Structures are given as structure tokens and as C-alpha cells.
Amino acid sequence: QVQLVESGGGLVQAGGSLRLSCAASGRTFSSRVMAWFRQAPGKEREFVAGIGWSGGTFTADSVKGRFTISRDNAKNTVYLQMNSLTPGDTAVYYCAADATAYRTYIGVATSLYDYWGQGAQVTVSS
Prior knowledge:
Blueprint: E1 3-7, E2 10-13, E3 18-25, E4 34-39, E5 46-51, E6 57-59, E7 67-72, E8 77-82, E9 91-98, E10 113-116, E11 120-125
Parallel strand pairs: 2-11
Antiparallel strand pairs: 1-3, 3-8, 4-5, 4-9, 5-6, 7-8, 9-10, 9-11
């Protein structure tokens, strides 16, 4: 069982930066792919970035070059550094943990992730 708690959301002006954190409980954190998804009002939840248990990353084209995912296994925490934010990035951001330990790829489908945080609101004003 993995429990996830996000923090770091808030209101920021366009062009600004925020860093989201996701603290995980459970001894299997280091063996799982971790990912960030986001959901804007009236839209489907979409993949933002993922990081494998070995440290490899995959980032959605929409945020590539602006967002960076990282993890600290000693702290059971995954981060999402968001730079050059635009109003289009406004959404609730969710941290997720893969249902399967040691998966060899970073999936983008929500169905691959069994554990979800409560969400962190990010609002970017123009």
C-alpha cells in the first residue's frame, strides 16, 4: 500500500515557477515508477511527467523544456519543478504511483497507476 500527499501548489503569475512535492509512505516507493498528471476543468486527466525506479524520465511534449521531474528515494519524495508557467498550465496536479513494481517503462495511461494523491491546485494568472 502506498499513500501519497502533494504540496506546493498555489497561485502564480505567467512566467513564474512553482515546485510540487509528493511525499509517499510505504517501503516500495523506490521500486515504482512515479508520475505527475494534471486535470483542468472540463478536461480529461493527462500525463505530465514520469520517473522510473532507476531514474529515467519521460515528459509530455506540452511541458518539455519547462517542467522537470525528480525523485529522492531517501526521502520517499518525488518533485515536479515547473518553470515558465502559462495560464494553460492551470489545473489540479496529481501525483501517482505505478501499480506494478519494477515496471520497465513509464506509462502515460492513468490505468497503470493504482495510487493517487489528493491533488494540488495550480493556478497561473495572465
